[in-house]
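Form 7-S
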Amino acid sequence: MGLFSTTLHVYKKEQADILESLKSLLIGRNLKFFNRINVTSDTFQQVLQLDVYSKSGVFYLVSEKFHRWTTIIELNVNVDEPFYLYELSNELSAKVKTYTLSFHLHDDDVLYYNLDHNGKSLDGYNSNVQYFLNDPLPRKEVMEQRHDVQRFSGILPEQKNIKELSNILDRGYWQAFDNNDLDEDGTPNDDKYEVIEEDRLKELGQYLEIYTADNFPYANWYKDIITLDLSKFYLLRADK
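Output:
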């Protein structure tokens, strides 16, 4: 089994503001009891086993604001009617009046994102449109799912450009699509289009400087996040 990872990144907002808005959204999903679980880099694995994966409720790890972004990591959803962090992206962008960018990595085979601003959906991404389909989609339907990197122009760091961002996103399926190099099943014809999606996510996070230009510790967060000072993060547990 490959890597599964869901994170939400909030532009130019402080941790306290995001926590207040996140709790409000969770109340709307019938969760009303909230508490903070103390965690450090040294105790993170133990907390996961004793306080997260073995209990019911929803758990989010919320970072400080690093440079321009604050990050929310979905640790576990263990309730009767589960929902997922990326489902909160648009509503959260409306509440905190900024950009939100959610990533969902599925089994290390396909990467999705949703880009929202002030409650408006700006753009979406699917790195492998054909992944869950048995029959090839018509070209028109594929084009309807194509991302629009121009939507990132308001949040690109200095010295970064839309063209290079597009190169990162188009690598793999979309490059094969543009080259008319898909087979009868709608998948790329050649191994040269193969992409490790965890690597793409890391490169994308670094290019957008969500943490730093050289480090994006949120792709495989279970392994990489312990390199950070987790005492400055807020581990939120919400329950009924």
